[in-house]
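Quick start: read one record
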Amino acid sequence: MTEHRIRQPWIDQGWVRIAAPAALGAAALVAWEVAVAALDIQPYLLPAPTAILAQLQAALGGIVQAALATGRNALIGLLLGAVAAVVVAALASRVRWLDQVVAPLVAAIAVVPIVALAPVLQTMYGATSEMPRIVVVAIASFVPVFITTLRGLRQVRPVHRDLMRAYGASGWQATRVVTLPGAVPFVFAGVTIASSVAVISAVVAEYFGGLQNGLGSRIASAAAQSGYSRAWAYVVAAIVLGLVFYGVTLVVERIASRWARVPVT
C-alpha cells in the first residue's frame, strides 16, 4: 500500500498567520487614505493615516515620554490589583463566609464607572499625584483577575485533594502545593484581560486633570487645540502600549506555567 503524506493546510502555516493580518491591516490603511482623499473628509472627523504618521515622526520623543508615564501607572496599578485579587481569591476559596461577603463587593466594584471615580480620587489626592490613576487601574484590574483566579482555585481534582489529605497536609499547604500551581492558567487568563483594561483605565483616568504627562492628557490637549492628527498619533501610541502589555503578559504566562509545571489536561 502506498503511503500518502497528508499535506498541512496552507492556513495552518506560521507565515500565513503573520502575513494575513498584516495584509489586512495594510489594505485597511490604504482604504482609509483613499476614502479621506476621495470623500474630502475633514481632519476633525478623521485625519488621513499619512498625516498621523507625520505627527508620529515629528513628536516621537514626546509620544514616547507620554507612553512611558502612562505605562508606568498602568503597570503599577496592574500589579497591585492582580496581587490583591489573587490574595483575596485564595482567602475566599478557603473561607466560605468570606466568599459570601466578597462576592457582592466584587460585583459592585465591577460596575464602578471610571469616569466617575477618577475625578473623585483626583480631588482626594491632589493634582500633582499619580496615585489616583494607579488606584483606578488597580480597581479595574482587580475584578477580572479575582474572578478567573477564584474559578481556578475551585478546579482542584478530588484525587489531588485526597492525596494531600493522605499525606497529612494542612489546608494551606494543599493550597500552596496543589491548588495555586493548578490555578496558574486561570490567574494569567485574568491578568491577560486586565493588562488591556489597565492601559485603557490609565489613559481614561488622565482625562480628568492632574499631571499633563500621559497619553490621555496629551490626547485631550491636542484635540482641544485642534491638533487632530497629533491626537490620533497619541491614540496610536496607546494602542501600541496596550499590545505591548498584552504580549508581555503572554510571555510571562508561558514562563510561569513551565515553572509551576502545570499539567496539560
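The chain has one domain: 62-260.
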